[in-house]
Amino acid sequence: MSARILVIEDNQANLELMVYLLQQLGAHQVFTATDGVAGLLMAKQQCPDLIISDVRMPNMDGYELVQRIKQEPALQHIPVLAVTASVMPEERQKILQAGFDGYFSKPIEPESFVQETEKFLVKGKV
Predict the structure, then answer these.
(1) Directed axis angle between helix 62-71 and helix 89-98, to 10°?
(2) What is residue 1's predicted lDDT score, i.e. its pLDDT?
(3) CA 55, CA 62: separation in Å to the nearest integer?
(4) Which entry of 51, 69, 82, 111 is 20 to 30 Å from 31 by CA?
(5) Three-state secondary structure along the chain?
(6) Average pLDDT by stretches of 10, the chain with 126 residues
(7) What pTM was computed for the model?
(8) Residues whose CB is less than 8 angstroms from the CB of residue 117 and which lie 6 or more positions away in sequence, other chains included
């Protein structure tokens, strides 16, 4: 199952790792952006099957980004996953309450990242 996935991440090493894993292990088509403003624009242009976004980014953080995506009729059906360095339970609850469909903790686990990501593609019926 090949999907179109948008990854929004301001840390270049994290971005490259996620793109590599999704392309090589998942055979997915991956689009990227390095901040929330560019990510929202890319989402509107590409209408991906899944969006993976960092929570803390310049210009527009992940919380504002997910709210704007969920307000866009053309985008609101797209699952959005957060990537965060915080492992605090209250942060995870805040992520889900903000509208994210799930989350990954940093550093991501390369062994399980693609498989966990693809669970959200099945939910989205890609």
Answers:
(1) 30
(2) 63
(3) 4
(4) 111
(5) CCCEEEEECCCHHHHHHHHHHHHHCCCCEEEEECCHHHHHHHHHHHCCCEEEEECCCCCCCHHHHHHHHHHCCCCCCCCEEEEECCCCHHHHHHHHHHCCCEEEECCCCHHHHHHHHHHHHHHCCC
(6) 92 96 93 97 97 94 96 96 86 92 92 93 58
(7) 0.93
(8) 5, 22, 26, 50, 52, 81
Q: What are phi and psi of 61, to 5 degrees?
A: -75, 175
Domains in the chain, ordered, with CATH?
Answer: 4-123 (3.40.50.2300)
Q: Per-residue b/e over 96-112, b at no fewer than 16 CB within 10 Å?
A: eebbbbbbbeeebeeee
